[in-house]
Amino acid sequence: MNIKIFIFCLISFTFSFSAIFAQRQLEKLGRGVIAVRQNKDSVYVSWRVLGTDPDDIAFNLYRKTGNSEAIKLNHDPITQSSNFIDAGVKFGQANSYFVKPVLKGHESEASKAFTLAANQPIQQYLTIPLKTPAGYIPNDVSVGDLDGDGEYDIVLHQTGRGRDNSSNGLTDPPIFQAYKLDGTFLWEINLGKNIREGAHYTQFMVYDLDGDGIAEMVCKTADGSIDGKGKVIGDATKDWRNQNGKILDGPEFLTVFSGKTGEALATTDYIPARGDIGAWGGKGGNGKNDNTGNRVDRFNACVAYLDGIHPSVVMCRGYYGRTVLAAWDWRNGKLTSRWVFDTKDGKNPFSGQGNHNLTVADVDNDGKDEIIYGSMCVDDNGKGLYTTGLRHGDAIHVSDLDPEHPGLEVFGVHEIEEGTKGPGAAVYAAKTGEILWNGSDDEDVGRGVADNIDNTRYGAQMWWSGSNGLYDIKGNRIGDQPRSTNFLIYWDGDLSRELLDGNHIDKYNGGRLFTADGCVSNNGTKSTPALSADLFGDWREELILRSYDNQSLRIYTTTIPTEHRNYTLMHDPQYRLSIAWQNDGYNQPPHTGFYFGYGMKKAPKPSIVLVEPKK
């Protein structure tokens, strides 16, 4: 064989081998034990199975009451689930629960314990008391391990007076606060008067970007932003707000904050700059350029594994016309630009194809992530992969929605913009952009959902505003449309997903399962949770809502037993990234990177390595 050909083949094999066997860095989680008092003498206990656990792992569950010795609650090691109902509990003293993994008959180290107080009330939520500023409302939440203890902490966006991009008027400064799950307050960041408040302005990413086991927070900043240590970014004397309350002049920054302290670790110029404000898309059917600031200040953000191993943060601007995605790496205390994708003008077929949200997935199965930005997809190298031409939309769902079709699928809904026409709802192949199904032609569709919600049918179902029915992923009508077209949550004991809307959870064709009395959802008619994610316990999801008085958050968890054992959804890379971007724009529910639902195969082992926190 020619030596050059041999070397080329060897290099190609090496890259292919590395792509297949590369392991993504993820946070090292504990067992996430949670215990909930169900009635006068019964406690529901749940804990995590990790994505790196051996298939034959089992668990012993222990309860320690007061100062007495801990007792094992199970006779044989628990193998079929990761939950347990402890009956006959006395609540005159505190009760602590912990698990010990069992491998080949040998116990290993005990997990961190979860303690129920003496005379613990009957409630299925944790309360996080807040320091809500006067006139503010708790809004979107993101999570990350901010201190390296193996459990998630909360970063909360506190919102005061806000304005949509299309509206004039002053807003209050966006404020971010960090809390531990026990309510401990960690820090506060005030973005200042030169960052406008509203759903499309500030997208904040919380993730361990440098692989030290502790999450950072990244967002757009400006003159007068104040970090968690009280340090001012830029020039605090500057006020760039114009007579309409818009901020169309002055410097724009990107800042990486320490998750542990809120300190600004690095600040650089935001990419892209505003440039020609009128070049970001028209403002209506008259087709004229928008110079009011409506289109230029439309932002999205996400985290993606662009090299297959390390996470990068991707900050985005624009989707009605010009669209720019800028990828950044945070490594060894330095923030560096990785690549910039820029459609530049309306002649580019990728222009005007973005959503009020986005999602991240490895669409071509090469171990690296792509950014699905509505009706277009950007490859891991920052090049346009494809565009469907289906236009702007408000909702997007990506998973293996059709297990009979190779790869992942995208379901989305689309609006009528600038006199355009086309399908109001469509399914396309995530790898190629090939349209697999479309409907509601030339209709303006604002909401839509796709996932397995019928626990008698294989594959995902889909529905959307005005669909007049529930459809299978092939486009066949199979039943009545659910009453809500909003969020999803894994809550009961089967593998299908439930309907989350406002402060209640419903089963498709099964009625109301749960109502979070005393709590309310966010974002007006969007009725979205502060966050829905698998935060602790088994693979089912928790629900975070704000209290009516805005002085606390509640984290609700299911107490319904299940016979299904799955590793934590947070160890599926696509799902974990979904939690990072859930606060982006018009919030969307997370999805796994494989089919999860009725008739599913065993969940594939994730190719991940868990990062030990650096002390």
Number of strands: 45
Mean pLDDT: 94
Query: How large, in whole angstroms, is the Cα Rg?
Result: 24 Å
Distance between the termini: 51 Å
Classify the beta-strand content into a percent band. 25-35%
- Tell me the helix content: under 10%
Helix count? 2
- What is the SS-derived class? mainly beta
Low-confidence stretches: 4-19
Q: What spatial form do the alpha-carbon principal axes imply? A: globular
The major β-sheet equals: 5 strands, antiparallel
Could you please describe the fold and organization of this structure?
The chain has 615 residues and is mostly beta strands. It is built from two helices and 45 strands. Strands 4, 5, 7, 8 and 9 form a five-stranded antiparallel beta sheet that branches. A hairpin with an 8-residue loop joins strand 42 and strand 43 (542-547). The longest helix has 19 residues, at 3-21. The radius of gyration is 24 Å and the shape is globular. The chain starts with a helix and ends with a strand. The model is unreliable at 4-19 (pLDDT under 50).
